[in-house]
Structure formats: structure tokens, C-alpha cells
């Protein structure tokens, strides 16, 4: 069966969004990988499937290009909020993920704020494979060491470095993503504090590799910088694709504000959804 989709992005972190609220769709990991191939499929950093939810305006399922599922995607949550708000004719929304219920507000200027929920900081929350102080993780690769662990609905390890531009992420990112300290693998951020209100970051995403932006990663970087005493509770995080504004409230919730964009709409050819498609 052919399926309509939207291509959306937040700061160049791009998504195939399939609205399955009226026509349920259950995708296998192999189907997600097929759609995600940038030459033989459509290509995406994350595949988002919208479903109906009895207790929220919408449920969003988040799949990586390797077919794995994630509990959070900050940039896609902004895109989904903007899309669903338009359809429902309201600016304040609730969005459920497998990690919980999020609140979002679409502002008159088009920017969207998502309450990404509380940052979870215990070693079991990240999760780690053994008890460790999440302010100083033991996982290391090349020059990268002494990370801060943060769970934003998905796992993150933030490495502060003198110059984030100089880090060889294609080499060290996958080693750290698969480090034995992280039983569910990990999203890896390298960050340089430019001032107490401005942090530069680059990301190696679990299941996706280098992307131009990662919203949950920007939240994790903000929280990590604040925990280390390097930043104020409201700051700008500068990603390859642009800036996100992050605020860590006293109650633990992390607010993320940034832009959304729609680039095109299309129809998936039925062969991409064929179960026999090679993985
Ligand atoms: N790009 C997303 C994160 C995707 C997370 C995914 N790579 C994982 O946790 O496996 C964001 O804006 O937050």
C-alpha cells in the first residue's frame, strides 16, 4: 500500500513523518532501514510515525536509520507539534513518546517550545552497565574522556573539549556509542563552552551517526554544562545546523525552543514497505 509522508527538519536534522492516526501502520526495523537509505529509499535521520493516543493529542514513534527505536527526539517533537497544532487549531499540545508525555507550545513567530520532561541523572537512568558517578563517566576513546551522563528520554554522554570542531567524531563516535558502559548504546556529544550562555556542540547519534542537530542532545549538553558549573540555567546551544535555546527549570524539566521546517511531501512506493525488502 502506498503511504503519504512529509519530509520535515529541525536545524537540518531531517525526518520522514508518516501520519498513521487514521490508517495504522506498524513498521519493522527492515522497513525503516529501507525507507532510511538515502540512495535506494527516501533517507532520514529519524522516521516518525504518528499514532492516535487516548490521553494525548498524538503519539509519536521514533525510529533510527538502523531500525532501532528511540524514546526521544527533540527536533522531531517540535516538527510534530507544529504539524498537529495546525490540524487541531490549537497552540498548546501534549505529545506522547514511549518515554512519557511531553508538552509543546507553538509560538506566533513559528518557533516551538517543547517541555522535554525532567533530565534523569541516576546511573540506572542513563542507563549505565554499572554504578558510576554520572558527572564523571569512565567511558573514553581517543582524547574523549570524563563525560557527563544525562537521560532525556534517551541516553546521552557529553564530553567537554577545548575545541569541538577538532574532534574526530567519525572515529570516536561509534566506539563510544557501543562502549560496554552503555547497555542501550548512547548518543555522544562533544561540547565546548564559549561563554556561560553559549555552548558549541557536535553530535554522534545512536543508530544514525553524525547529524546536523540533535534536540535531546542539546538539552543534555545544557544540563551537563549547568551540572558542571560551566553555564547558566538558560543558554544557547550552537549545533552544526543552528541554535537551540535550552532552559533547565528548578523542577528539573528541560525546555527546548527552536525552529521547524517542512521541505517536501511524497508517497512511499509500496515496494519500500514490502516485508521481503533486503535489510
Ligand atoms: N535527533 C534526535 C535524537 C534522536 C535520538 C536517537 N538517535 C536515539 O536516541 O537513538 C533529537 O533531536 O533529539
TrEMBL record:
Keywords, sorted A to Z: Amino-acid biosynthesis, Cytoplasm, Isomerase, Lysine biosynthesis
Pathway it works in: Amino-acid biosynthesis; L-lysine biosynthesis via DAP pathway; DL-2,6-diaminopimelate from LL-2,6-diaminopimelate: step 1/1
Enzyme class: isomerase
UniProt: substrate binding residues: 13, 46, 64, 74-75, 154, 187, 205-206, 215-216
Gene3D superfamilies: Diaminopimelate Epimerase, Chain A, domain 1
A GO biological-process term: lysine biosynthetic process via diaminopimelate
Protein name: Diaminopimelate epimerase
Native species: Aerophototrophica crusticola
Phylogenetic lineage: Bacteria, Pseudomonadati, Pseudomonadota, Alphaproteobacteria, Rhodospirillales
Amino acid at each position: 500500500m502506498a503511504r503519504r509522508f512529509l519530509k520535515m527538519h529541525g536545524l537540518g536534522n531531517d525526518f520522514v513523518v508518516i501520519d498513521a492516526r487514521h490508517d495504522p501502520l506498524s513498521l519493522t526495523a527492515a522497513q525503516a532501514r529501507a525507507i532510511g537509505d538515502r540512495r535506494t529509499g527516501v533517507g532520514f535521520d529519524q522516521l516518525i510515525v504518528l499514532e492516535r493516543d487516548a490521553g494525548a493529542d498524538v503519539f509519536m514513534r521514533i525510529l533510527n536509520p538502523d531500525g532501532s527505536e528511540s524514546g526521544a527526539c527533540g527536533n522531531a517533537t517540535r516538527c510534530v507539534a507544529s504539524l498537529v497544532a495546525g490540524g487541531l487549531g490549537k497552540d498548546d499540545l501534549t505529545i506522547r513518546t514511549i518515554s512519557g508525555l511531553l508538552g509543546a507550545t507553538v509560538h506566533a513567530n513559528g518557533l516551538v517550545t517543547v517541555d522535554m520532561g525532567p533530565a534523569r541523572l541516576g546511573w540506572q537512568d542513563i542507563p549505565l552497565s554499572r554504578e558510576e558517578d554520572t558527572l564523571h563517566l569512565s567511558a573514553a576513546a581517543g582524547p574523549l574522556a570524563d563525560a557527563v551522563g544525562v537521560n532525556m528520554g534517551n541516553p546521552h554522554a557529553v564530553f567537554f573539549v577545548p575545541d569541538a570542531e577538532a574532534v574526530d567524531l567519525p572515529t570516536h563516535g561509534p566506539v563510544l556509542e557501543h562502549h560496554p558502559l552503555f547497555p542501550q548504546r548512547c548518543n555522544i556529544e562533544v561540547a565546548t563552552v564559549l561563554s556561560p550562555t553559549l555552548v558549541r556542540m557536535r553530535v554522534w547519534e545512536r543508530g544514525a551517526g553524525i547529524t546536523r542537530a540533535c534536540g535531546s542532545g542539546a538539552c543534555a549538553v545544557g544540563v551537563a554544562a549547568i551540572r558542571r558549573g560551566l553555564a547558566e540555567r538558560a543558554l544557547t546551544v550552537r549545533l552544526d545546523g543552528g541554535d537551540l535555546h535550552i532552559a533547565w527549570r528548578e523542577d528539573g524539566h528541560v525546555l527546548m525552543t527552536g525552529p521547524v521546517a517542512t521541505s517536501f511531501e511524497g508517497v512511499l512506493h509500496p515496494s519500500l514497505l514490502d516485508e521481503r525488502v533486503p535489510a
